[in-house]
Amino acid sequence: MVERHPILNMVSHLVLALGVLIVAFPLYITFVASTHTAQAIVQTPMPLLPGTHMLENYAQAWNGGGDGAGSKAPVARMMTVSLISALVITVGKIAISLLSAFAIVYFRFPFRQLVFWSIFVTLMLPVEVRIGPTYKVVSDLGMLNSYAGLTIPLIASATATFLFRQFFLTVPDELVEAARIDGAGPLRFFKDVLLPLSTTSIAALFVIQFIYGWNQYLWPLLVTTNEDMYPVVMGIKRMISGGDAANEWNIIMATAMLAMIPPALVVILMQKWFVKGLVDTEK
Fold first, then answer.
1. What are the pLDDT digits (tens) for 175-201?
2. CA–CA separation, 79 vs 233, rounded Å?
3. Angular region, 110: left φ>0, alpha ψ -120 to 50, beta rest
4. Helices 232-239 & 75-106, crossing angle to 10 degrees?
5. For residue 43, is it within any domain?
6. Domain count, the chain
7. Within its chain, how far is the Cα of 120 from the centroid?
8. Could you tell me if 180 and 261 are in contact, meaning their C-beta atoms sit under 8 angstroms apart?
9. What's the pTM?
């Protein structure tokens, strides 16, 4: 048992408070910058209290436009592209990983372990390593500047397949036998038994993969040349062009704040399932 001591409690709370301040201060500065004019941000010292231009800046960022040297694409469109891409990547990764793990664990076929380890080895070949050949294939198939080009090369996931395989191996054999006695086929067993048992793991992977898909930058940078297909992370980078005086930092910071909302909502709304899924996976 850990002994409670007032001094130790005070020190631990001070350390936690300091950690929160270190993490939250850049976010606060971003919010403050999004409420001032561009001229107020670049002056020295920069204001540390919110300004009076919040609604104006966020409306301009949402609708696009402005006088800066960088991209003027509307955030509403960029966030739509990011949301669709993140959802397709997330749902695709989970669906393919569930089916592949189900096949590896419950079906007997030649070279089954070789197939699994072939999938697992792809962890050493992320998109950055195979980006040249992948881009060539996407280009030859005419998928540049499209949702298919943004999502399909990122859908397969060896990590999710491995996690689902490890979870399926813990499912008691008695459930399989009971399903067979009841006359359930493989797909019914998968739908009625394995999927309900995998809910928490699916929720944990959904959060992780959604953030992964939302934060994509390098791959969209290659396959998109049209502003209408910019995801929001790439759009923020395209807004920055030239020196400080040439950028509308208030609009850029407003865009950054808007870009944080969807992943933050996913984490907050699914926090309980996320933590439970991680704990259950460890067990």
1. 888 888 888 788 888 888 888 888 888
2. 9
3. beta
4. 140
5. no
6. 1
7. 21
8. no
9. 0.85
